[in-house]
Automatic annotation (TrEMBL):
Protein name listed in UniProt: Cytochrome P450
One Gene Ontology term of the molecular function aspect: heme binding
Residues reported in the UniProt entry to bind heme: 400
Domain of life the protein comes from: Bacteria
Keyword terms of this UniProt record: Heme, Iron, Metal-binding, Monooxygenase, Oxidoreductase
Pfam families referenced in this protein's UniProt entry, alphabetically: p450
Essential cofactor(s): heme
Provenance organism: Umezawaea endophytica
Gene3D superfamilies found in the cross-reference section: Cytochrome P450
Similarity-based family: Belongs to the cytochrome P450 family.
Cited SUPFAM superfamilies: Cytochrome P450
């Protein structure tokens, strides 16, 4: 159904207003991405936008989003976003589809079992404790940067049994924003821009060289250290031991692609969600109070398990709400054959956008969508929400492989931090949502304040 806000399109679908000659909707997608995407709910169920001259179809209806992701998966590949990102991620779970994707997913499954999630919880608890014990009361912390380091350290430790050096962490901190920004520009602007000798493209090459160096060293160190057998039992051990049907080991390039993908996919969203959760908990004293009350039931110094953290009902509601309020901005697919999506007939090769951010901020499914309210999840839980309206981890064949690890890790890190300190947002700082691969804060300065002695003694 078209609304009065739509404009006419050649395809007969509702068209988004504000289209420019040549660059299409790129200006809106670059400068005010979240606002633009959210505005499309009132235009139609499937809305046509332009990425440069290329039409793309934004799904704004949960039923249609479910139809795109779940039963219809074999009709689509990963689309323009991942095509542009494949210079960075190579051939991996994030960029592949169909039989090759299924084969990769089967071979990586063993790194995401319940035992691995439990061991992740232990790593996160240890690393988060080390972090909070290094803080001094009343200093100003750059919480967003600290959460990036924490998430990356935990991913590297859990999947690759590696302690990243301060230099490695700095390299990621410096170069990830450039890579995300370039991939989005290349997706929304006309093709061919990536071949021009611009400053952005030169920075992209430099960033790739630096991160390839970190990942290459990580793999080489393991190869050198493991001799004839690899005792680590982690993802890297499975990758190094994997053989195809003819008994050939995986090419070095493929191992690099998987390691790079997991380090980035495993840390970037986790870091953003951690920062936002701390921000929301501590700017709402009633939420901080309820979180601490719940944590009081855990014996001090107890080594947490995945079962412990999943029983923290209120803290898990805080995590669910953070994932609703600050999810991935947009993801793409492309039709492999003519497809009917909702009421719309699309030809083969059509680019499609689904946006967890748009769906999670539609007031029809989430009243007062900008209000942070963990109690949305307390009476109804996840059972009664409209199917397809809440997609923080996607759905269907490409649902996040790290979902259970992410949820357990997020709750663990928050439990440790909130049981040690009260973090006070620095007054007068405007915290903005910045959309790249995730929705992350532009900055997050906070001041750790000491808890009363009784509470400190009960720290997790
Ligand atoms: C808060 C944390 C996280 C969020 C919000 C998140 C979100 C997502 C989403 C929305 C997708 C679906 C992409 C699509 O539809 O194409 C996805 C896929 C993926 N995620 Fe996550 N993720 C998180 C944590 C992790 C972690 C911890 C890992 C690994 C350690 C990970 C690895 C991946 C991979 C490899 C895929 C591609 C899966 C496939 O296509 O088979 N993610 N994630």
């Amino acid at each position: 159904m078209k609304s009065r806000r739509s404009v006419a399109t050649g395809s007969g679908t509702a068209g988004a207003p504000g289209r420019w000659p040549v660059v299409g909707h790129a200006p809106a997608l670059i400068s005010r991405r979240l606002e633009f995407l959210s505005s499309l709910s009132s235009v139609g169920e499937v809305v046509e936008i332009r990425l440069g001259p290329i039409p793309a179809y934004v799904v704004t209806d949960p039923t249609v989003a479910h139809q795109l992701l779940v039963p219809g998966d074999r009709d689509y590949d990963r689309g323009r976003l991942m095509e542009k990102a494949s210079v960075w991620f190579g051939d991996s779970l994030l960029t592949s589809h169909g039989a090759s994707h299924q084969q990769q997913r089967r071979s990586l499954r063993s790194a995401f079992t319940s035992e691995q999630v439990d061991s992740h919880v232990r790593h996160v608890q240890d690393a988060a404790r080390t972090l909070v014990e290094s803080w001094t009361a009343d200093e100003v912390l750059a919480v967003d940067e600290l959460m990036k380091d924490l998430a990356l350290t935990n991913t590297a430790q859990s999947l690759f049994s590696t302690d990243l050096t301060a230099e490695n962490l700095e390299s990621f901190r410096l170069h990830l924003p450039t890579l995300f920004k370039s991939v989005i520009f290349r997706t929304v602007l006309p093709s061919g821009m990536e071949r021009m000798p611009t400053m952005g493209n030169l920075r992209f090459k430099k960033a790739m060289r630096s991160l390839n160096g970190v990942v290459g060293d990580l793999i080489a160190d393991r190869r050198a250290g493991s001799g004839n057998g690899d005792e680590h039992g982690d993802l890297l051990a499975s990758l190094l031991a994997a053989q195809d049907d003819q008994g050939h080991v995986l090419p070095d390039q493929q191992i690099r692609d998987h390691v790079m993908t997991m380090l980035v996919a495993g840390s970037e969203s986790t870091a953003a969600v951690l920062s936002w959760a701390l921000y929301e908990i501590f700017r709402n004293p009633h939420i901080a109070h309820r979180v601490r009350e719940e944590l009081g039931a855990i014996p001090s110094g107890h080594a947490l398990t995945a079962a412990d953290v999943s029983s923290l009902t209120y803290l898990n509601n805080v995590v669910s709400e953070t994932l609703r309020r600050y999810p991935v901005p947009f993801i793409m697919r492309r039709t492999l054959k003519p497809v009917r999506l909702g009421e719309v007939e699309l030809p083969a090769g059509a680019e499609i956008v689904y946006s967890p951010y748009l769906l999670h901020h539609d007031r029809r499914w989430f009243p007062e969508p900008h209000r942070f309210d963990p109690d949305r999840w307390s009476s109804t839980g996840h059972g009664s929400i409209t199917k397809g309206s809440y997609l923080p981890f996607g759905a269907g064949a490409h649902v996040c492989i790290g979902k259970r690890m992410a949820l357990a890790g997020l709750t663990t890190a928050l439990a440790v931090i909130c049981s040690h300190w009260r973090l006070e947002p620095v007054a007068g700082q405007r915290i903005r949502e910045v959309a790249t691969g995730t929705v992350h804060p532009n900055r997050m300065p906070m001041i750790p304040r000491r808890l009363p002695a009784d509470d400190r003694e009960r720290a997790v």
